[in-house]
Design brief:
Largest sheet: 7 strands, mixed
Shape: globular
Radius of gyration: 20 Å
CATH architecture of the domain at 200-352: 3-Layer(aba) Sandwich
CATH topology of the domain at 200-352: Rossmann fold
Helix content: 40-55%
CATH superfamily of the domain at 200-352: NAD(P)-binding Rossmann-like Domain
CATH class of the domain at 200-352: Alpha Beta
Bound molecules: glutamic acid
Number of helices: 14
Distance between the termini: 45 Å
Strand order of the largest sheet: 9-8-7-6-10-11-12
């Protein structure tokens, strides 16, 4: 599985993603007149676990890594969400990401709450053996709080099928020594992964772009696309939007950004990246900065990197008509206001990238029922789910004259609050 890549050149590390998540919640609470107590419940994760992970490195030394698992809310179902490996991981980042998962699962209307995990590490500087030992130690450390009906992890930035397989194996051996594929999703097909899961985030995003273009009467054949980040989500988003007729004109990864206004073929660029390790030096393309990339005149901008890429500093300079967020948290609340004023339609992360967790749900269902679905069946069900989620959000956006993020949040918070109220407080 290809790993996510990202462009961190304009990542604003001083903006705290959890504060952004809390601002989004407060703004929504105001609009829907949320009870203060319920607001407080939603403002902090139910549980956040910090673990210390000693690992024997290849040179014989012991190195200790820090990892987290944040479980935000499980009113609607088990906690669900990925695990990321990145030097920028922090407790506040995983808390924010876990809250966004709660909203994402509610928007997609799948029976899960939100969770997220991460390890502070630089995966590019770990050998395969070190990555396996670190992953298994992390799985051991969180084993008591995850489980097929409690918390089901998945891939995220710089993790994929390999890591999921080690976590499933470690968990299964610890908890009764029988295979339990339903404890984790995003697995390789051979051990219970789902067909279509690898492409699912990009496929879901392309469906939301298709729906947005139809509402805005934009012809995909005349559309140009800019993609920030050419990892799993970025690549498949680009490919599937290209299949609808659009032309990708600029793209980046962690090593640099390239642009060719006559078009960049996604398939050829993927080959170039496989051969050279980066999108940089793609034949016929000019090299540009990250700011130039985001501010390129285009129809659709797809941030598929890390958080806080579109801020109040650059939001006013963005020329895209649609922003479809493949990554989580790329736009700050201040930037949202500017984009809304400028009539740019933002398809927020909790809607645009919900295809990933939706197919994770299908994978989990297949595992629980010991079934295998065809790729066509997975893709059809995904299309039905995401099209419905888009329509639900768009209706709220249209009727209430709020941006699409607020519309998604209104839908999500109302669904979660309804579940909390019906279940009641215990004791
Ligand atoms: N990490 C992905 C996300 O942010 C997928 C989560 C999942 O499949 O559980 O949505």
């Amino acid at each position: 599985m290809s790993k996510a890549s990202f462009d961190n050149s304009s990542a604003n590390n001083t903006i705290n993603p959890f504060e952004n998540a809390l601002t989004q919640l407060s703004e929504t609470a105001k609009i829907i007149g949320l009870d203060n107590g319920l607001h407080q419940i939603l403002a902090s994760p139910k549980r956040v676990l910090t673990v210390s992970l000693p690992v024997r490195m290849d040179n014989g030394e012991i190195k200790v890594f820090i990892g987290f698992r944040s479980q935000h809310n499980d009113a609607r179902g088990p906690f669900k969400g990925g695990i990321r490996y990145h030097p920028q991981v922090s407790i506040d980042e995983v808390k924010a990401l876990s809250m966004w998962m709660t909203w994402k699962c509610a928007v997609a209307n799948i029976p899960y709450g939100g969770g997220k995990g991460g390890i502070i590490c630089d995966p590019k500087n770990l050998s395969a053996g070190e990555t396996e030992r670190l992953t298994r130690r992390y799985a051991f450390a969180i084993a008591d709080i995850i489980g097929p009906h409690t918390d089901i992890p998945a891939p995220d930035v710089y993790t994929g099928g390999k890591e999921m397989a080690w976590i499933m194996d470690t968990y299964s051996m610890m908890k009764g020594n029988y295979v339990q594929p339903e404890v984790i999703t995003g697995k390789p097909i051979a051990i219970g992964g789902s067909l279509g899961r690898n492409e699912a985030t990009g496929r879901g995003l392309a469906i939301t772009v298709r729906e947005a273009a139809a509402r805005l009467k934009i012809n995909m054949k005349d559309s140009t696309v800019v993609v920030q980040g050419f990892g799993n989500a970025g690549q498949f988003s680009a490919q599937l939007v290209e299949e609808q007729g659009a032309t990708m004109i600029a793209v980046s990864d962690s090593k640099g950004c390239v642009r060719n206004r006559n078009g960049i073929s996604v398939v050829k660029l993927r080959k170039h990246k496989e051969e050279t390790g980066s999108v940089v030096n793609y034949p016929g393309a000019e090299s540009i900065s990250n700011d130039e990339l985001l501010e390129t005149d285009c129809t659709i901008l797809i941030p598929a990197a890390l958080e806080n890429q579109i801020t109040k500093q650059n939001a006013g300079k963005i020329k895209a008509k649609i922003i479809a967020e493949a990554s989580n948290g790329p736009t700050t609340p201040d930037a949202d206001k500017i984009l809304f004023q400028n009539q740019i339609l933002v398809i927020p992360d909790i809607l645009a990238n919900g295809g990933g967790v939706t197919v994770s749900y299908f994978e989990w269902l297949q595992n629980l029922r010991r079934e295998y679905w065809t790729e066509q069946e997975v893709n059809n069900r995904l299309d039905t789910n995401i099209t419905k989620a888009f329509a639900d959000v768009y209706d709220i956006h249209d009727k209430n004259k709020v941006d699409m993020r607020k519309a998604s949040m209104i839908l999500a918070v109302n669904r979660v609050v309804e579940a909390i109220k019906i279940r009641g407080l215990w004791p």
